[in-house]
Amino acid sequence: MIERLKEWKGWQLAILSGVLLGLSFPPLKLGFLAWFGFLPLLRALLRERLIRGALLSFFAGLVTNGLALHWLIFNIGAPLHITTASLVAASLYLSIFWGLFGFVFLWLHSRIGAGLVLMPCLWVGLEFLMSLGPVGFPWVSLATTQTDYLPVIQLAEWTGIFGISFWLVSLNSILYDLFIVPRSHRLFLLREVSLVLASIWLIGYVRLATLSNDDQSKRVTVSVVQPNIGPHEKWRPENRDEVFAQLDSLYLIAADSQPALIIWPEAATPAFLTKNQRRLAQVRNRIRQTGIPLLTGTVDWGLSDRKRHYYNSVALIHEEGEIPIYHKNQLVPLGEFNPFVRQLPASEDLNLGHYARGKKMTIFELGETSFASIICFESVFPRLVRRLTLEGAEFLVVVVNDGWYGKTAEPYQHEAIVRLRAVEHRYPVVRSANTGISAIIDKSGREVATIGLEEAGVITASIIPAKGETLYNRLGDWIVFLAFLSLMHIGVRHWRAANS
Fold it and tell me: Which of 194, 217, 400, 437 has its CA 20 to 30 A from that of 250?
């Protein structure tokens, strides 16, 4: 295979890798393409100098991210020139990390001959950096490509998403070696490839078969409401009564199953629900009749420094008393806030929202059980979920509004990512989406119940809360620490050798 690529030009090989890796993301169920998607790029890199190699790697990243995130252009909440700019900006930004990967990989290979050996450590380190800060975006972690392979993602219990990425890049590295070594050495490498590929599946199947039964006495029944109301229609004044009526009717359908909790999606109500006394009284009257509390996404506001700040929030409402509320911590860049407003005032034209960032972790109480709720984009950040789990959350609720993207790849990718959160902490994850995909997911990452796109309805299932006492929960991104440590160790050794 590699020999056949000899005649290809570098940019062609970069495009091929970009296409293979871009198509490996959901919903196409082509995750296996990521097992060898780096091979053409490696072929191109290993015959180039540092700068040109970095550019080729950047180009491959541009194709990968452009394909994986193409749905950004279909956002119905903004005009085409804005959505196009957001896709271009996101792809360019994320591809910078790819360019850095190509540069450092070639430096390691040319100086100490360890590029292929350290490639998994390098990739994991850069993928971690890609997830940091206000513009962090772990959505395009390679781990997302494997979410259709239940045995593979069981690795997240021990390593989080970066362990899955490490495995994928290791597989690519060994495969490349297999194709370039002399035939006499290929049998050994073929065994090594088979071991790396088969072991992760075998371990996953064994782990799925040996997952212990949780304490059945803690079983809790939850109902998820999916109203399927378009994000534009919801806020039209003439539609508000109808929206509340539909939410109420679905609440009553859910109440028939006598769950312990009913969940509405992100920004479900066309009102500042905790501040609008008339609407809040309506909701509380219904809760008083059924005795079932409601967790709902809602917009909210608060005063600080004599200014009104708006929040994307989720609140737990009982028939009376104080309303515990969580304000979204990780906002969508240029969707909910503008991280560049000081440096680039003109970028404010691209900003679609003006929300303030929440600063507190909120743990909600439900009888003897504690849970956390996060909002939409936050579900792609494993460290945020880990913080909430360490605070005492025994299951996770994700409220979402993916209606801005219709029937594109976005809601499929977004729902796939939360399956990883379930495995990382071995507890249930409940996802309520305005227009889909809503799901109740067990601790193995398996969907127990779902509602598809652009359907209105209710799903109800019993879940078993758990403490989330996994290796990943205790140690966090330890594999990233080891990756950086390995890179630093090799770097120091090379520096000492060069100066001795």
Answer: 217
Q: Do 76 and 188 belong together in one domain?
A: yes
3-state helix/strand/coil string of 364-420: EEECCEEEEEEEHHHHHCHHHHHHHHHCCCCCEEEEECCHHHCCCCHHHHHHHHHHH
DSSP 8-state assignment for residue 354: -
Look at the chain and report how many structural domains it folds into: 2
- Show pLDDT as tens, one digit a residue, over the chain (500 residues): 566 667 788 899 999 999 999 999 999 999 999 999 999 999 999 988 999 999 999 999 999 999 999 999 999 888 898 899 889 999 999 999 999 999 999 998 888 877 888 999 999 999 999 999 888 999 999 999 999 999 999 999 999 999 999 999 999 998 898 877 767 666 777 787 788 888 999 999 999 999 977 777 789 999 999 999 988 888 888 899 999 999 999 999 999 999 999 999 999 999 999 999 999 999 999 999 999 999 999 999 988 777 899 999 999 999 999 999 999 999 988 778 777 766 666 555 555 668 888 989 999 999 999 999 999 999 999 999 999 999 999 999 999 999 999 999 999 999 999 999 999 999 999 999 999 999 999 999 999 999 999 999 999 999 999 988 899 999 999 999 999 998 888 877 777 776 66
Measure the CA–CA gap between 97 and 280, rounded to whole angstroms: 47
List, in sequence order, every residue forming a beta bridge with 431; answer none if it has no partner. 398, 439
| CA distance linking residue 144 with residue 139, whole number of Å | 7
| Residue 53 and residue 154 in one domain | yes
β-strand pairing of 294-304 with 396-400: unpaired
Quick check: 459 and 430 in contact, CB under 8 A? no
Cα separation of 78 and 28, whole Å?
A: 26
Residues in the chain: 500
Residues 291 and 188 in one domain: no
Residue with tokens 């000081």: 342
* Same structural domain, 38 and 128: yes
Domain extent at residue 417: 217-469
User: Are 91 and 65 in contact, with CB atoms under 8 Å apart?
Assistant: yes
Helices assigned H by DSSP within 231-299: 231-234, 240-255, 277-290
The enclosing domain of 453 has a CATH number of: 3.60.110.10
Same domain, 189 and 68: yes
Both 241 and 185 in a single domain?
Answer: no
What does pTM read for this prediction? 0.93
* φ, ψ at 354 (rounded to 5°): -135, 60
Hey, what amino acid is at 265?
Answer: P
Whether residue 492 sits in one domain with residue 434: no
CB 273 within 8 A of CB 296: yes
Q: 231 and 135, same structural domain?
A: no
